[in-house]
Design goal:
The structure holds 2 protein chains of 2 kinds. Chain A is of the alpha/beta class. Helices cover about 35% and strands about 20% of the residues of chain A. Chain A is built from 9 helices and 10 strands. In chain A, helix 4 runs parallel beside helix 5. Chain B is α/β, with parallel strands linked by helices. Chain B has 2 domains: about 60 residues, no CATH class; about 250 residues, Alpha-Beta Complex (2-enoyl-CoA Hydratase, Chain A, domain 1), CATH 3.90.226. Chain B contains 15 helices and 10 strands. In chain B, strand 9 and strand 10 form a beta hairpin. Classes of the chains: A alpha/beta, B alpha/beta.
């Protein structure tokens, strides 16, 4: 998956990639990185997401010392090892997910938040392992689980090992399900490939941000395969809602209250 | 003298099975030197027949050369050449294995929700001495069948039909055998509308806790989530010259090299051969193919496959189901490679 609209660029002013309006950066940040003109939801880093979702100073990070290796000595135009280094320096994170325990409106939960600023949130061994451990912690501590998906899919540079993370995380979700645990899956722009085809689509509740791209095969792959022009609304959150694959589409400002509501209905 | 020579079995056994009704074998690029030798052998045989001259010594030498070259070629296949073999037009397909291995096959259709996907075929089967639920992806042999089967690319209803049949197997205590040969799940509008991702995800989750033995074998192509959706199994094996990867070499080349001309390098980098995946612990077993690949000798391939299924299903049936499901979980739980700084140990994939 290629990055269509990356994060939030630096500077005092910024342009909304959707409506083109020039926006004062501070205003955008205050509106949870949503365009005040057109409601475009900017892609945000895992740390920003956690700060927006959790009650202040309640997030306690876990599994932060799990770091990637280069098991296949993968080299394309650039060595995977170097790519990792660059991404780690850029983001300050070891890999593309941040996990831990937090509180949303006073309700405790385990969360795993994928980070689109690190190799497009792609899932390799570290992402799979940390998400699995977060699921296991939710079972162990009898807490609700929230996973925020925002990912281009399985990471090619770890090949089949990345593919196996799909099986690993889905198997862990099965255990959470058997234990009667609550799993809320939040899909942010973009959620594609191996992430969609594993835990992201296995929530007891699947909710999505407006206009988020949610797909198995990305629109470019499909367009290349079947050689037809795809409608703009294809594979957007609202399209999935219409076809019965998400429970509801929710504006970022209402996320906290809706997650709290789901927890209240399901957790004794 | 000439009669005895003719009676001698030719080194490259004539292609048997339904894989090749025409009797002509498709020649892969790297097989061209082999094809030239085969041609020489045929010409010399014809000449011998025609002129009643004894060329047996020359023929023997040519045949020895041929076998040596065949062995050398197939012992040193590159990853990309392996992908070519896995896609060989005369490689046995799911239906060929059904014909060659199953004593009975009662096909079951439909996902009970939308339709029937011919790219995924399911049925009650007697094979390798067991009653099983047999599930396979089928690419289709002739053009008409290929189109009908979407070239083996499954739709959501295919994965849902497979899951429905696995649940049946669980209920009635039948082991599940999956034969996988697919470039991936179908990337199309209908597939996305009907939840391609959800259908695969559901299979991963449900297969991980299915209370009956599961054996999955990649027989040709093991393309990404489309293959994994039938491969969360107690034992996962690959035929020797099949491939299994997170993305096709062409797809990977298109994204990482920004063009599809680097499929050769991508195939190498992805470590997608059975040998690599056995080393990595992603698969449990490599089922050997006859010299020169399954397309040269479908029956021996089917025989090897059958033997593996017979033994593996027998072993799995002996396990207590609780232990089996626990071990299946642990198997996938342990996959991945990373470093954990605090614990100061490197976790690696374990078979």
């Amino acid at each position: 998956m290629q990055l269509r609209k990356e994060g939030v660029p630096e500077g005092l002013w910024m342009r909304c990639p959707e409506c083109g309006a020039m926006l004062f950066r501070k205003i955008v940040e205050e509106s949870l990185h949503v365009c005040p003109e057109c409601d475009y939801h900017f892609r945000i880093s895992a740390r920003t997401r956690i700060a927006q979702l959790c009650d202040p100073d309640t997030f306690e990070e876990r599994f932060a010392d799990i770091e990637p290796v280069d098991p296949l000595k993968f080299v394309d135009k650039k060595a995977y090892r170097d790519r990792l280094k660059t991404e780690q320096d850029k983001t300050g994170n070891p890999d593309a997910v941040v996990c831990g325990k937090g509180f949303i409106k006073g309700r405790p939960l385990m969360l795993a938040v994928m980070d689109p600023t690190f190799m497009m949130g792609s899932m390799g061994s570290v992402v799979g392992e940390k998400i699995t451990r977060t699921i296991e912690a939710a079972i162990e501590e009898k807490l609700p689980l929230l996973i925020v998906s925002c990912s281009g899919g399985a990471r090619m540079q770890e090949s089949t090992l990345s593919l196996m993370q799909m099986a690993k995380t889905s198997a862990a979700i099965a255990r959470l399900d058997d234990a009667g645990g609550l799993f809320i899956s939040l899909l942010a722009d973009p959620t594609t490939g191996g992430v969609t085809a594993s835990f992201a689509m296995l929530g007891d509740f699947i909710i999505a941000e407006p206009r988020a791209l949610i797909a198995f095969a990305g629109p470019r792959t499909i367009a290349n395969t079947i050689k037809v022009e795809l409608p703009e609304s294809f594979q957007r959150a609202e399209f999935l809602l219409e076809h019965g694959f998400v429970d509801f589409v929710i504006h970022r400002r209402d996320l906290r209250s809706e997650i709290a509501r789901l927890i209240d209905f399901c957790v004794k | 003298m000439a009669e005895t020579l003719v009676a001698e079995p030719r080194t490259p056994k004539s292609d048997a099975g339904n894989a090749n009704p025409s009797g002509l074998r498709h020649v892969l690029e790297f097989e061209k030197p082999l094809a030239r030798l085969e041609q020489q052998i045929r010409e010399l045989e014809a000449l011998q027949q025609q002129k009643q001259v004894d060329y047996s010594a020359e023929l023997r030498e040519l045949r020895n050369n041929y076998t040596a070259l065949l062995r050398k070629t197939y012992d040193n296949l590159s990853a990309w050449e392996t992908v070519q073999v896995a896609r060989h037009p005369q490689r046995p397909l799911f239906r060929d294995y059904v014909d060659m291995i199953c004593r009975e096959f009662r096909e079951l259709h439909g996902d009970r929700a939308f339709g029937d996907d011919p790219a995924v075929q399911c049925g009650l089967a007697r094979m390798a001495g067991h009653k099983v639920m047999l599930i396979g992806t089928h690419k289709g042999r002739d053009t008409k069948e290929k189109v009908r089967c979407y070239f083996g690319l499954a739709h959501p209803e295919g994965y849902r039909k497979a899951l429905r049949c696995m649940k049946l197997a669980e209920k009635f205590g039948l082991p599940v055998v999956c034969l996988i040969d697919t470039a991936g799940a179908y990337p199309g509008i209908g597939a996305e509308e009907r939840g391609q991702a959800e259908s695969i995800a559901r299979n991963l989750m449900e297969m991980s806790r299915l209370r009956t033995p599961i054996v999955s074998i990649i027989t040709g192509e093991g393309g990404s989530g489309g293959a994994l959706g039938l491969a969360v199994a107690d034992k996962v094996a690959m035929l020797q010259y099949s491939w299994y990867s997170v993305i096709s070499p062409e797809g990977c080349s298109g994204i990482l090299w920004k063009g599809s001309n680097n499929a050769h390098e991508a195939a190498e980098a992805l470590k997608l051969t059975s040998k690599h995946l056995k080393q990595l612990g992603v698969i449990d077993h490599v089922i050997p193919e006859p010299l020169g690949g399954a397309h040269r000798d479908p029956h021996t391939t089917a025989h090897n496959l059958e033997q593996y299924i017979a033994k593996t299903v027998r072993d799995l049936k002996r396990c207590k189901i609780d232990n089996l499901v626990e071990r299946r979980y642990e198997k996938f739980r342990n996959m991945g490679a990373f470093i954990e700084k605090a614990a100061r140990h490197a976790s690696r994939v374990t078979a």
